[in-house]
């Protein structure tokens, strides 16, 4: 599973990455994490507000920071495709 956090490296982006890593770890999901700071790449996902979460190239949400428990639910759903 590839998990990307899109954003300019702000505090909210870092918190979202931290929460995503913790969620994957707690679920025992093997994942590769990437920070995407390039504005053109961010725009290619159709994101207008950051931070944003992308799982396996699918935009999950943008413009907010989500807690560990909600990310765990998202990852469970995406892993069960």
UniProtKB/TrEMBL annotation:
UniProt KW NAD keyword: no
A Pfam entry, by short name: Thioredoxin_3
Gene3D superfamilies: Glutaredoxin
Keywords annotated in UniProt: Disulfide bond, Redox-active center
Residues the record marks as active site: 10, 13
Residue span(s) of domain Thioredoxin-like fold: 1-76
Cystine connections: 10-13
SUPFAM superfamilies membership: Thioredoxin-like
InterPro entries tied to this protein: Thioredoxin-like_fold, Thioredoxin-like_sf, THIRX-like_proc
Name listed for the protein in its UniProt record: Redox-active disulfide protein 2
Organism encoding this protein: Caldicellulosiruptor kronotskyensis (strain DSM 18902 / VKM B-2412 / 2002)
